[in-house]
Design a protein that fits this description.
The chain is built from 12 helices and 9 strands. It has helices at 4-15, 18-26, 82-97, 110-116, 151-160, 167-180, 182-196, 198-203, 216-240, 247-255, 259-269, 275-280, and strands spanning 36-40, 43-44, 51-52, 55-60, 66-74, 100-106, 120-122, 126-128, 131-133.
Length: 281
């Protein structure tokens, strides 16, 4: 079953079909600027059973006729059954759209990319190999022009070069997501957080979307951080004044999630005579 990471990476191409064109050019293919990219049906009917690719992008000319069909496969791990399936996609795509086809395998992991590039034998003398984009072919954040820096290509770049993602790159990615806005930006942000964790949190702590953090996770994390910070402030003030508190009283303060109550406690902690008085108010 595809992982959530796999699903979100597929969504990058469904949301922005021109991403496939940009990556093909990065891979050395000459794609005329006059062609328009659009998402297409990705289930291919074949005699054995219908088979479903991750995404399909059709490049059309001004006359709307297909010029090139791109079958996009996100590959996160080794799978010895995939090369034969990629060949099936290639043949089925050419038959359906009556034009040239290319299977574009996006492999953010270098080891998986190396494996995917190996030619698969077809018959006694033939072979098939997809066009593979691994970390070496996906541009780094620093190499992206302003015109190229879409939310989708930004996310793909960070995942492909995650070992080299510094605070500046993560901050730039979050900026692109803020510019994109909406549920899709939240989805991408969650994927980046699952990959980079606290490094992303520290890099984007000052960025907000519509006055709130970028995602449901970030909203919860942001509020939790405020709650914990205020509760710790209450305890610090009490300790500085020499007011002892029992383990039960400490747990009661730390357990509070009411920001207004915590603000009142901070103000009262400067004057109360006992912790019991504080909690009573």
């Amino acid at each position: 079953m595809p992982s959530s990471k796999h699903a979100i990476l597929v969504d990058l191409f469904r949301a922005r079909p021109s991403l496939a064109t940009a990556l093909l050019r990065r891979g050395g293919l000459r794609i005329p600027r006059s062609l328009t990219a659009e998402i297409s049906e990705s289930t291919f009917p074949v005699s054995m059973a219908d088979t479903h690719a991750d995404a399909v992008v059709v490049l059309r000319g001004a006359d709307t006729k297909p010029r090139l069909v791109v079958v996009i496969e996100i590959q996160l791990a080794l799978d010895r059954d995939k090369p034969r399936r990629w060949l099936t996609y290639h043949v089925a795509a050419e038959q359906r759209h009556v034009c040239e086809a290319v299977v574009l395998v996006v492999a953010p992991d270098a080891r998986v990319a190396h494996w995917a590039r190996k030619a698969h034998p077809v018959g006694p003398r033939g072979s098939f190999a997809p066009l593979v984009l691994g970390p070496d072919e996906v541009p780094r954040m620093a190499d992206l022009t302003e015109a190229e820096r879409s939310a989708e290509l930004t996310v793909l770049s960070l995942l492909a070069h995650r070992r080299h993602a510094d605070r500046i790159a993560l901050h730039a990615a979050a900026t692109a997501l803020v510019a994109e806005g909406g549920d899709r930006a939240s989805l991408y942000f969650d994927l980046l957080h699952a990959t980079f964790g606290q490094a992303l949190t520290r890099a984007v702590e000052d960025l907000m979307l519509n006055g709130e953090p970028l995602s449901d996770w970030a909203k919860a994390h942001y509020r939790q951080g405020k709650v914990e910070g205020k509760a710790e402030s209450v305890l610090a003030i009490l300790s500085a004044r020499g007011l002892a508190f029992s383990p039960e009283e400490q747990r009661a303060i730390l357990a509070s999630t009411d920001l207004e109550r915590l603000d009142r406690w901070i103000a009262r902690a400067l004057a109360v005579g006992t912790v019991a008085d504080l909690l009573a108010t």
